[in-house]
Amino acid sequence: MPSSYAEINLDVLLQNFLRLQSYLKPGTKQMSVIKADAYGHGAVRVAHVLESYTDWFAVVNVDEAIELRESGIIKDILVFGPPTKTTVSAYPEYNLTAVISHMDHFEILKEETAYHVEFDTGMGRLGIDCNSCDEVRTKISQHEELYLKGVMTHFASADIPGDPKTAEQIKIFDQIREEFAYLPDILLHAANTAGILCYPESHYDMVRHGLGLYGYDSKLIADSKLKPVLQWKSCLVQCKWIQKGSTVSYGAQWTAPENGFLGVVPVGYADGFKRNLGGKAKVSINGNYYPIVGRVTMDFIMVFLGDQYYDVGTDVIILGTNGNNADVMAQQIDTIPYEILCGLHNRVKRFYLSTQD
């Protein structure tokens, strides 16, 4: 048995998908983003649950896409990352759709490759300059051996309701849409989870379900019906009495304020538990929350239990659904839930729960 494991509830995953779908007008296509191993949840299992519901999948590189194809996934897969000379053969071989985010990509893609064009409307990362529509149309006509399937952009700050930057990006993308109106069969898409929830005018032909699939959106736009899919669990490997004034962990940075029990949990930064969560995060034991004390170590964290004793082997919820979910942890160390979820390392074994099994 591993020292810790993640329970991933596939029924909750599907409920989140359907909740996001409820924001859409009929006919809007849906892309499920399962890059980074589905944000740490396991891309293959997530894809097989969603394949009967979603229209597209999205990953960041061809290796992630090939893994899905080899597992039996047949739905369209969009590869967000730029194609390179070493990866272009994989697109037609595995029926993958490329993203052209630079003019040079038109010249390296192999014959019969499908693609979407990405415009940079304000993200400032990947994407063709939004003033280059004429040049893009020329490239499209010059490369009839390639198949244009969509036009896309990426929002920079859609998780802020009423954000003027997002409003400007939508305005620019509306103008780009007009430039390609002569191609009626392409898919236009821009909205991530935040766009779905806050900017219905950005839904266009398709939306991209990302973090919302896994139960999170933003503390500014919280949808209480989205539920965390993943719980990270372990157990106590030691519970010992310590005296007031005793110090705990490296550097002796924490001193017991009173006599009490100290619990040791076999999880550390080698598992993906952020080192700077020490002294901030809490774990849940039998429905009660206890603070992590002392420095987080490579393989262990320590929790102060006060006068409460628990037997060795008692379950500990490290990352849960309420007082210690990924959003709570992210706020404690000034980061985002994406980093918390994607940071779970491979030695955290994944187990899947579903009433469908």
| Count of helix runs | 11
Percentage of helical residues? Answer: 10-25%
Unreliable stretches = none
What characterizes the major β-sheet? 5 strands, parallel
Number of strands: 20
- SS-derived structural category: alpha/beta
Could you tell me the radius of gyration in angstroms? 23 Å
Shape, per Cα inertia axes: elongated
Distance between the termini: 22 Å
Q: What share of residues are in beta strands?
A: 25-35%
Mean pLDDT across all residues, rounded?
95
Word description of this protein:
There is one protein chain. With 357 residues, this protein is α/β, with parallel strands linked by helices. The chain is 25% helix and 25% strand. It contains eleven helices and 20 strands. It has helices spanning 10-21, 35-40, 43-50, 62-70, 90-93, 105-108, 133-142, 164-179, 193-198, 326-332, 337-342, and strands spanning 5-9, 29-33, 56-59, 76-79, 97-100, 114-120, 128-129, 147-152, 187-189, 206-209, 230-235, 238-242, 247-248, 254-255, 260-265, 282-285, 288-293, 301-306, 315-319, 349-353. Strands 5, 6, 7, 8 and 9 form a five-stranded parallel beta sheet that branches. Strands 12-15-18-17-16 form a five-stranded antiparallel beta sheet, with no helix packed on it. It has a four-stranded mixed beta sheet with strand order 19-11-1-20. β17 and β18 (301-306) form a beta hairpin. It is elongated and about 75 Å long. 41% of the residues are buried. The model has no long low-confidence stretch (mean pLDDT 95).
